[in-house]
Design brief:
Blueprint: E1 2-7, H1 9-21, H2 24-31, E2 34-37, H3 41-51, E3 84-87, E4 90-91, H4 97-101, E5 109-111, E6 116-118, E7 123-128, H5 134-146, E8 149-153, H6 164-172, E9 183-187, E10 190-192, H7 194-202, E11 205-211, E12 221-226, H8 229-242
Parallel strand pairs: 2-5, 5-8, 8-10
Antiparallel strand pairs: 1-12, 2-3, 3-4, 6-7, 7-9, 11-12
Helix pairs in contact: 1-3, 1-7
């Protein structure tokens, strides 16, 4: 049985968040272990799903990409929410993402959002907007060296064509640059897109067959859902409950691109 669905960017973020919250390694660490959730738009949905409560998602933000010429303002929270770090399922306010990773061991979980995705090679890309290397620059050594589970939630709207080694090398070539110029760091981990999320939540298969739209569907993805009739019907039920998720933010008031 087959069916098609369209998911907006915010709907995809909610879908991915629900799947991440139910991942075996996340559930295990919630029972016993450490989980650190980096700031970011997709991760703000993950915070809601893991904590089981609504937050002002704009307060759990890092670098944001806005239109170069916005047509309406955007309201962002004036407050920045502290990093969410949990030990054995309980919030640990004295730890942030950088201090938490120094206490992590194999089996613990670090969740980091991404700026780009090369799906065929299962590689993500993170824009580095500071000389310190941002979140990933300050944590990746501990993550790799200690065998921490690195989970990379990223929507298919962030898919790019070029290989990340080519992207990062080209960005780093000495040249005269114009304006703000972040670098790109390729990263590997457990990638979670809409495809993995549909399968994890429903058992159905998802195939990314088209992208884009208008009237609020800009950046949307079109998925072909397939599998046993019961699984496809179950997937449609789950996805219909997610559809209608309001945008993370309606519009933008300034232009900036940063991440890390």
């Amino acid at each position: 049985m087959k069916a098609q669905v369209v998911l907006t960017v915010s709907e995809s973020k909610r879908l991915i968040a629900k799947a991440v919250a139910l991942m075996p390694q996340v559930k295990k660490a919630l029972g016993k272990g450490l989980i650190a959730i980096g700031t970011g738009t997709t991760n703000s949905y993950i915070v809601e799903e893991i904590l089981g409560k609504t937050i002002d998602k704009t307060s759990y933000r890092s670098g944001l990409t806005f239109p170069a010429k916005p047509t309406a303002p955007i309201q962002l929270s004036p407050e920045i929410m502290p990093d969410v770090v949990l030990k054995d399922g309980e919030l640990v306010p004295e730890l942030d993402r950088f201090s938490a990773v120094q206490e992590m061991h194999a089996g613990d979980v670090f969740i980091k959002g991404c700026n780009a995705l090369h799906y065929a090679s299962r590689t993500a890309g993170i824009l580095i907007g500071s000389e310190s290397g941002g979140t990933i620059g300050g944590t990746i050594g501990h993550i790799v060296g200690r065998g921490v589970n690195l989970i990379l939630p990223v929507g298919l709207e962030k898919a790019v064509f070029a290989d990340f080694h080519q992207i990062s090398r080209t960005l780093a070539e000495p040249d005269v640059t114009t304006g703000y110029f972040p670098q790109m760091m390729p990263i590997w981990g457990t990638i979670v897109t809409e495809i993995e999320s549909v399968e994890a939540l429903t058992g159905a298969k998802a195939l990314h067959i088209a992208s884009g739209g208008v009237g609020g569907a800009e950046g949307a993805v079109r998925l072909l859902i397939s599998g046993d009739p019961d699984k496809v019907k179950g997937a449609l039920k789950v996805l219909k409950q997610i559809q209608g998720e309001p945008p993370w933010a309606i519009s933008a008031s300034s232009s900036q691109v940063s991440a890390g």
